[in-house]
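Inputs:
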Amino acid sequence: SLPHSEGLRVQCYSETLEAQQRHRLNVQNALRGATDRGEMSLVFQPKLSLKELRITGAEALLRWKHPEMGHLSPGLFIPLAEASGDILAIGEWVLEQSILQAAAWQHRPWISDDFHIAVNVATRQLARPHFAHMLLARMAEHRVPHRLISIEVTESGLMRDIANARHQLAQLIEAGISVAIDDFGTGHSSLAYLKTLPISTLKIDRAFVMDLEESDTDRELARTITQLAHAVDCDVVAEGIETAAQAAYLRSIGCEMAQGYFYSRPLPAADFAHWCAHWVPQATTPHHHPLTHG
Ligand code: C2E
Ligand code: MG
Ligand code: MG
Ligand code: MG
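Outputs:
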């Protein structure tokens, strides 16, 4: 039989697993109706052009505060919502809120001609045969110009049903809604398909950005992904930029846009508007911002 201490360790381990599973189950149960109960909200992270440091948009990111469990990370609950199907209702709520926000912001002085709110669209949402039609109908309802919204889809979202994905994306692109592939390089997309899909932007995953300063390999990968994107006529957004050196390197290899804590964390709508109103492109020397560094 096991020595006493080892038996204890085994017991603790299975208790932890059990507790984790219980937590996941609680989260999954609490997901249904969370938007109706007012527990969810959106935050907005600025997207900037790397050359002039102009604000070119915002990514809308979902936040959930449960009354007992507190703040829950989308990294945890989005996959659970995908599995249960709750992502369909939640995703429609996210789109609706993003459209309402675009309507509210559209005449603000800091909104440039190319400003857009980028909305994350889950694989199951895009798989719906009427996804594009629903999105365009919502925008028409709120009289929001199409250019103010863009979508981000993952490689698995595209590859699951390539024929339907192509059909949905073609309708969106036709209507002037641009489409980005999110977390590029972490999934399994086929380059042969990539060439044939109406995609305007590739987002380099944070995994390739975080070690740029230390890793020759990551610098080479970031450069290769950028060249690949340009070869298929896409712009490149780098996500997760946290340092000036990362930004400088990405700019030097021709990456067009940037997003990351170095510029700003995702912010509640009112704070985002305040941030934008105070942002000075090419402020003083490199990347100074009165709110984030002052
Ligand atoms: P994502 O779409 O790749 O979003 C970028 C994530 O990186 C966000 O995490 C953002 O807060 C984080 N981030 C941005 N800059 C930095 C940085 O400089 N450093 C670090 N460490 N992180 C940074 P978040 O908000 O936790 O979201 C995680 C993922 O959850 C998203 O990854 C996306 O896949 C998913 N997600 C979030 N909101 C939604 C939504 O409304 N719908 C769907 N379907 N998925 C969503
Ligand atoms: Mg995204
Ligand atoms: Mg991403
Ligand atoms: Mg990511």
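Remarks. The radius of gyration is 21 Å. The pocket of magnesium ion (ligand 2) is lined by residues 59, 120, 152, 182 (CB under 6 Å).
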